[in-house]
Amino acid sequence: MEANIAVPTEEKGKWDGGGPKPFNASYGKMMMWFFILSDALTFSGFLAAYGLTRFKFINSWPIADEVFTHVPFVHGDFPMIYVAIMTFILIFSSVTMVLAVDAGHQMKKSKVTWYMFATILGGIIFVGSQAWEWNTFINGTYGAVKTTEGKVLQFVKDGKQISLADFVTEPRTDGRIQHTRKNGLWFEGEGTVQNYSVAQVLKSYNANPDIQVRTEFIDLDKKQKTILSREEGALRLAEVKTVIEGANLQANEYGNTSFSDFFFFITGFHGFHVVSGIVINIIIFFNVILGTYEKRGNYEMVEKVGLYWHFVDLVWVFVFTFFYLV
Amino acid sequence: MAQAHESNTKRIWIVFGILSVITLVEVYLGIIKPEALHLSGPGTSWLNWIFIILTLAKAYGIAWVFMHLEGENKWFRRSIVWSGVFLVSYLVTLLLIEGGYIFDTLSPLLRW
Question: B59 and A314: CB-CB below 8 Å?
Answer without folding.
Answer: yes
